[in-house]
Amino acid sequence: MLYGREHVEKYQETGGKIGHDWNGTVTLLLTTTGRVTGREFTTPLIYQPDGDAYVIVASKGGADEHPQWYENILRDDRVTVQVRDDVFTARARTASDDERTRLWPKMTAAWPAYDEYQEKTDRQIPVVVLERV
Question: Which of 14, 56, 67, 116 has the highest CB neighbour count under 10 A?
Fold first, then answer.
């Protein structure tokens, strides 16, 4: 099973032929700019399309703190996204409460463990919308 750096490398090398389909769901690559280092970081994340946008979840497995990539987009919302062999610039934003209510079931259908992650933490796990620019 692909994970972490190997997942990113195989995805990039093959235009998503290896890595897009993962554990019964689908992943994209999100590249953010580190809020402290200014370096680029690429993370494979489960996604679902929503109209022209893509939706991801800042779960960090139900940890009490947000994942680093989410902290990065709060500082700089301009990101690079790769879905299969399509690489594009996007703006990342936290879904509004109404959007989250609509999108959460879509995301838990793609990865049921998100509900378990939410039960493990007091923070509301953010749903993030990626919109192509």
Answer: 56
pLDDT tens profile 21-70: 999 999 999 999 999 999 999 999 999 999 999 999 999 999 999 999 99
Domain CATH for 127: 2.30.110.10
Give the contacts of 49 (CB within 8 A, at least 6 positions apart). Answer: 55
How far apart are alpha carbons 28 and 91 in whole angstroms?
15
What's the domain count of the chain?
Answer: 1
CB 83 within 8 A of CB 28: yes
* Residue 114: per-residue pLDDT: 98
pTM of this structure: 0.97
